[in-house]
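no rush on this but wanted to send it before i forget. theres a chain ive been looking at and ive put its sequence and its fold in token form underneath. please have a look and point out which stretches look like helix strand or loop to you. thanks a lot i owe you, the record is right below:
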Amino acid sequence: MATDLLSRLRRLAPTAPQDRPREGVVVPPIVRRARARRRRRLAATLTLVVVVPVVTAVSTYAKDVDRGVHVLGVDLGGHSRGEAVRLLRDTLRQRVTAPVAVRVGTAGATVDPAAVGLVLDVEATVDRAVAATPGPFAWLHGGISVAPVVRADATRLYEALMAHLGTQGDAPVLPAVRFDKQQPVAVYPVSGRGIDRHKVGAIMEAGWLRRGTVDFPVVDLVPRSTKADVDRLLGELATPAVAAPLVVATPRGEVAVPATAIAAALKLESDADGLIQPSLDVAALRKAVPAFGKVEVAATDATFTVERGRPVVRPQVDGQQADLVAASPAILAVLRTSATPRRVEVGLAVKPAAVTAAQLGALGVKEQLSTFTTKFVAGQPRVVNIRTMAEALRGAVVLPDQTFSLNGHVGQRTHAKGYVDAPGIEDGKIKNSPGGGVSQVATTLFNAVFHAGLQDVEHRPHTYWFDRYPSVIEATVVYPSLDLRFRNDSPTGVLIDTATTDTSVTVTLYGTKRYDIALEYGPRTKMVQPPTTYLRETDCNPTDGLPGFTQEAWRVFKQGGKELRRERFSWRYDPEPHFICGTAPVAPAG
């Protein structure tokens, strides 16, 4: 750049005349001295006119940023782009993080730049500086100042400023037309006072780092839709819209939309600027008219199945639904008419499945992590509950870093869901309740989680130990107070699969295997024999009684045969009383 400029200046410079005497002519000494003085003056002039500007230009344009270029008082001239970025960032480091003094109307306050997304884009600012080209003599006049590139999150800034508006502001009443059942009701606009949300970003960007205090004036806020606009909507749309039903005709059949559903779906609310733009709430319309389900085909999500002991993805199937979004303009137009019957043609659109095969395939569910089985006696009422919960659990997918809740996934155990009354522990006694026995599923799941090496978040063993479960490594659940929760702390998904027979329930987990897990027990200590208790209750369940004890267990994590770490579990079991249904025998007298 400097070389090109020097060449151009040389070409433009005048050529000094050659004062050569003609042959045979004698030049007097006085003339020779006068010509010498002219040559010296010409050389001096050339130096000022050509050489000095050339030297100055070469110095000015020698780097990426021309000399004389400033940003916010920082001289970036003569620096490379990288140097200018570092210089600007280092010089302004404290200024760009300091609280910004603002004035909202007459109220003074400060704003945290980070809280409102206020940043100085150093890279873009230096790009501006590089593009700036001051004239060769601009440095003699102090150079030029380049505006910084500043950005702010206008929404967050507006919210922060509104916190300081106080009594200076008076929110406007935004116009609307609403429905009281099927009766349209007008809400007329009323002007207010406040901050112009559309200007706060530009004001802050123009003032930050260049002014001591950035002023945000309080102005009149006039809703864009007027009283006349509201009256026009009332007469031209809202009133005729609910005067008669609407028939929506689809390729799969017709759907009758009553006036009550129209009132629920027609939205005549204004935006933040007070402008009413009529719209149709498609979700509200579908909810108000269940008959749409008769002409639509539900989508089927992709799922996992287990085939020959390996997880397989079953692809999704997209559905079809009435394209009410595309038909909204036509529906709004029809609602403006009072003629009957009112009818609009609506096409069908693809309704994508929520879960796709690609999404499941990317989860890394490819092999068995663990499996665990517990046994029970066939034919008991609790078996119904075990099967019901196992079926509800089958197919659950736990995403990476997700915490799974058994109560959250299965929900409350009720008769409506197929659960029956069966014995369970309640206040230390064995009582009948809906879902009694589902702790067998909880214990089986917990053991599968234990042996898969997944993180235990919440579990609690039973008050009494039952020999159908491994001691310590077992769990009970009560809805909603006592839950079984675990976290998938692996980088891949986890699939829960269940299976039942007449005498057993099995839980198998699939994912990507990380650990080999071993279970080690300590001895049982503090043994306590069960007491005998007589119960005179209508729903009494007799028991044989079991001893109480304390025991420790360790989960040992291994990879390649090498122990990585171990996790301690411990529990104290109360002795289960020997419950006898009836009256205690009376000891013989004497």
